[in-house]
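Notes on consecutive records. When two proteins share a document, each keeps its own sequence and its own token line. Never mix them. Below: protein one.
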Amino acid sequence: MTAVDGSGAPVTASPPDGGQAPALNVERLLLVTTGSAFATGMPYWVDWLRLSYPELAVKMVLTRSAQRFVTRQALAGRLHRSGEVLLDEWPEHEGTARHVELAEWAQAVVVYPATFHFVARLALGLADSPALLACHCTRAPVAVAPALPPGGLESAAFQNHWAALAARPDVVLAPPHPGVSLTTGRAEAWVPPLLPEVIAMLEHRRAELEAGSAGRLPPATPSAYAADLARP
């Protein structure tokens, strides 16, 4: 596994798992990046996607808070031939509905990294941005990879949101790993798995949905919640 620093950027440029990218049997991927410091590593992961899946079309959506950590320009240059980078807002002078276009275009969706706030809004069914509404309305599987501050994983609110999302067959949750908090400097934050791990989980769920075998009930107790976090 490639190591990451406190912001989530890979320490080395070597491809994960010896360079063997997991299978991804889709042609169009919607990648939503939210406002975690982990977003600073997204230029690396966009390069990895482009090199690992040269035929894959990628549309990225940056939330307003994500732009604190990574610029649209830093990503657009990497995708100019195979995708585009959009902001998570409805343009004032656009004749089409961006959320409908995203929902219908995507064959798979990855929210990476997903902040506590975005996870909460998704779990509660809020739809106040194109990315959120697209995630609710798409028929594609949606992988959510949270990045959480110290105490976030133990929060009763987050546990409730996790359970709500775990009950949705079209959502696959990527359990976060322990990481270093950029604020405290201590290993008490939670960071997403590396993107190849999330892609592998997404493809597994996509195949389950295609076969009609996907389904999961929400964990009923705190111990079941902890066990659910550890499930692949």
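Protein two starts on the next line and is unrelated to protein one.
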Amino acid sequence: MRDRFRDEGRVEPLPVIWTGRATNHLQWLLATVGGACLALGIELAVDSTWTSGIAALLMAVVGCVAAGLLILFGTLAFVHVRVKVDSDALEVRCGHMGVPRRRIPLAHVVGAEFAPTVTPRQWGGWGYRWRPEQGTAVIVRRGEGVVVTLGDGLTFTVTVDDAEAAVRVIRDRLRLAGAGKPAGI
């Protein structure tokens, strides 16, 4: 089985096998722009000598605050990504709060490949992406990544430092899982 100390009646999970992360420092610049928009909206609301009427002021304040929050939270969610491979799954967590998060059981994985260059352009930008013909991806920066092929034929791609090591670990886990299956399955 996958548990240590099974014979003694205790069940202790296997340790994490591999962890990695990737960071996009350009996202901090975009987060600063979002913070500036938010500050402008607050400044307009608090200390405005707007003479064009309350409706125009309200639209400007709401527009600046909304744009600031969208830019700020949208960029901070994808400043960095953490990837963990353990005995059961590949887990991807984005940003400081770990949201969005994706957990893929290794039982659903049929293969893993190293991609030397994954670009935001291939996926339509930074962030959590979906393309019907490719699958899904978490792209926080340009560079190396892991491409996992799922049982349904689609892929999951994530940009992460030391992606080659992650691919080796996933392939080893898949081999171990395959070795434990009875013949004919």
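For the record: The longest strand covers residues 109-118.
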